[in-house]
Amino acid sequence: MSISGGYLDKLNPQQRRAVEHGVNDGRAPPSPRPLLVIAGAGSGKTNTLAHRVAHLIVNGADPRRILLLTFSRRAAAEMARRVERIASQVLGQSAGVMTDALTWAGTFHGIGARLLRDYAPEIGLDPAFTIHDREDSADLMNLVRHERGFSSTESRFPAKGTCLAIYSRCVNAETALEEVLRASYPWCAGWTTELRQLFASYVEAKQRQNVLDYDDLLLYWSQMAAEPSIAAELGGRFDHVLVDEYQDTNRLQSSILLALKPDGQGLTVVGDDAQSIYSFRAATVRNILDFPAQFSPPAEIVTLDRNYRSSQPILAAANAVIELASERFTKNLWTDRTSAERPQLVAVRDEGDQARYVVEQVLANRENGMSLKQQAVLFRTSHHSGPLEVELTRRNVPFVKFGGLKFLDAAHVKDVLAMLRFVQNPRDRVAGFRLMQLLPGVGPTSAQRVLDRMHDAADPIGALLEVPSPPRAGDEWHRFVDTIAQLRAGTPGWPAELEQARTWYEPHLERMHDDAATRKADLIQLEQIAGGYTSRERFLTELTLDPPDATSDQAGVPLRDEDYLILSTIHSAKGQEWKSVFVLNVVDGCIPSDLGTGTTAEIEEERRVLYVAMTRAKDSLHLVVPQRFFTHQQPATGDRHVYAARTRFIPSALLKQFEKRSWPLVAPEQPTGPSFTRDVRIDIGAKMRGMWR
Ligand code: ATP
Ligand code: MG
Q: What CA–CA distance (Å, rounded) separates 320 from 343?
């Protein structure tokens, strides 16, 4: 009999089997057989994983030897909180101490960065490495493109973003360049040789500058884990490795897990193939489907079939949508959460009306006692929330936006962070170049010259101090160099150095921006955020990997007990749930998005995106269908407002699952586009558009 709390009694038999798997006689031995929990949305996978971690700890597993991999840092923190709550039922007060020791909970990238710093000396990496976000990576790719002479405008060489995307896909999918080009970038195939040279130079540049990009965190980790002299030690560090949202991992991530636990012992993964929505980042649903057979004996499989999240009508509609998918492993779910309220399919005239409709409903819900935090608005792409953000601001409704344009992407914040990065790693050329370009009188050529000299020197900061000031830079050059030298020497120390960096930056801020005062407030907010981190290195790493969310409030992130509405891309809403969910732009062209190439695989993934969106809702779900919407594609007419049709994923046969209505009830102008409320049998409009797909 294992030690258990009342917590086991709340689980259903399958969940309980997953939680207790490999725990014998009240002991959690370090090497139970591999376990796969595969089940649909809201069936309690994440909850089961939290219970399993708590159960392992309660039964004697060492929390410092548990590696818990989640999809975001927010999800890791939430998981740790849940584990503590569950474990405290048995351990009481001491549960907090135990779960505080659960230090290896985070994302693949975050954990990778930490392990790489630990092992840096053994793998020839300088532990002071800095991490490039996507924008920095694209800048570096661009720099290398120029250096190699590939970027002349008439040559039509792929743009920096495309180059980076191709490179990233090769790395994450562990696939050869030719294959990636053939499958996803056929129009670039003529450049195979040049791209290969470019990527070689890009890799060299990163190594010279001691920077890692996002992909490197996984790539270096997997290489390190496969190294025989390190593999055993690394794998031996963790008794249990548990992964949530396994359907969205890529080949590289699965090879990391396999290198850590070659026989799968102690490995638990959970996921849902019907929610696989990250193939654009080379995630592959094969990982989850092929998981059991990788091991001998094969992994234990637990499936869950009861949904605890959504009311019956919402679940039925979501099931109906995913049932039309061409391929799927997990079965449909059932629930006993009856409700009379069907999900709503709401026709509105345009995105302006859509915004007004949503705000009105959200406020009505609040009137009826549902806080803003229990509601969320989801959309396919970050910019779709523009009109809604305006309307919310106008009506004074606070909101937080997940997965959107980040506070950290603002130029002034990036400038100050570049200062910290350059101090941390003076070989980081993208950071150095950015800073020197702020100085009046320092052009790109002189900046490159200085960076070259730093690069060739054994002591780059020493070299920087000795470089004569570029002729027209004068005092500003000295102020810059002195600040770097001071921060590098450790005065005034962390986190006060951020204030020092701001003091250095302020004259530039005032010279460059009319709204310097607001921007300065952002920088002060950055200092407050920095106060929560123990070191510059930790701050830079975590901020780059998982930046804070954007908010409606100029003063920054709302306090925990404040009430605010969540705005999120569907991708960032993964794993979460709200009482009431609104999905914007449920039209063809948005879901499925018209930005892809329109292959069957891509369209199928978009169907899963809609499934993920719908299954976030507990009690109330509104899918909004504007009859006219703004497109980023340039249509032949030149008018970027196009008439839209309801998403093809809700064909007429499924309309009975929904309550259909238009808003405003009596439209002042009749929409001229195809009306979705009519039960069209053949959607000619969609066919016509399809001819051009
Ligand atoms: P997703 O696929 O969206 O990630 P999931 O399968 O991870 O969903 P959870 O988020 O773990 O599902 O659980 C969904 C909801 O169901 C949560 O509110 C959770 O507390 C609740 N739940 C899970 N299991 C049970 C149970 N045995 N009894 C009551 N509620 C449960
Ligand atoms: Mg989950």
A: 12
Round to whole Å and give the CA distance between 568 and 72: 14
Q: Going by C-beta distance under 8 Å and a sequence separation of 6 or more, which residues neighbour residue 379? A: 385, 567, 568, 569, 570, 583, 584, 585, 590
Beta bridge partners of 106: 69
Give the predicted TM-score (pTM) of the model.
0.83
Closest-lying ligand 1 atom to the alpha carbon of residue 39 = 6
Instruction: Give helix 474-488 / helix 496-512 axis angle, nearest 10°.
Output: 160
44 lines ligand 1 (CB under 6 A): yes
3-class secondary structure for 401-417?
A: EECCCCHHHCHHHHHHH
Helix (H), strand (E), coil (C) string for 655-669: HHHCEEEECCCCCCC
Q: What is the pLDDT of residues 283-311, one digit of tens each?
A: 888 999 999 999 998 999 999 999 999 99
> Pick from 39, 14, 30: which is nearest to 67 by CA?
30
Percent over 90 (pLDDT), the chain: 57
Q: Is the pLDDT of residue 668 over 70?
A: no
Contact 398, 562 (CB under 8 A): yes
Query: So what CATH class is 407-545?
Result: mainly alpha
Residue 553 Cα, ligand 1 centroid: separation in angstroms? 31
The CA radius of gyration of the chain, in Å to the nearest whole number, is 27
**Cβ–ligand 1 contact at 70 (below 6 Å):** no
- CB crowding 578-615: b at 16 or more within 10 Å, else e: bebbbbbbbbbbbbbbeeeeeeeeebbbbbbbbbbbbb
Coarse DSSP helix, strand, coil percentages of the chain, rounded to the nearest 5 percent: 50, 15, 35
Domain 6-113+221-304 has CATH 3.40.50.300: yes
- Closest CA to ligand 1's atom 13: 44
**Contact present, 575 and 615 (Cβ < 8 Å):** no
Phi first, then psi, for residue 381 (nearest 5°) are: -135, 145
Which bound ligand lies closest to the C-alpha atom of 37?
Answer: 1
Q: 440-449 burial by CB neighbour count: b if 16+ within 10 A, else e?
A: eebeeebbbe
Distance in angstroms (rounded) separating the CA atoms of residues 661 and 658: 9
Torsion from C-alpha of 485, 490, 493, 495, nearest 10 degrees:
60
Identity of the residue numbered 35: L
Give per-residue pLDDT as tens, 329-371.
Answer: 777 889 999 988 999 999 999 999 999 999 999 999 999 999 9
Task: Tell me the best of 47, 49, 337, 578 to mutate to test the pocket of ligand 1, counting ligand atoms within 8 Å of each CB and taking the most.
Answer: 47
For 137-195, the DSSP string reads: HHHHHHHHHHHTT---GGGTPPPHHHHHHHHHHHHHTT--HHHHHHHH-GGGGGGHHHH
* 28 to 49, 54, 60, 219, 322: CA distances (angstroms): 15, 11, 6, 32, 38
Tell me the CA–centroid distance for residue 46 and ligand 2, in Å: 4
Q: Which atom of ligand 1 is nearest to the CA of 10?
A: 27
Angle at which helix 108-119 crosses helix 228-236, to 10 degrees, equals: 120
CB-based burial label for 336 (10 Å; 0-12, 13-18, 19+): exposed
- Tokens for 408, please give them: 């950290």
DSSP strand pairing (399-402 vs 130-132): unpaired
> Is CATH 3.40.50.300 the classification given to domain 312-404+555-663?
yes
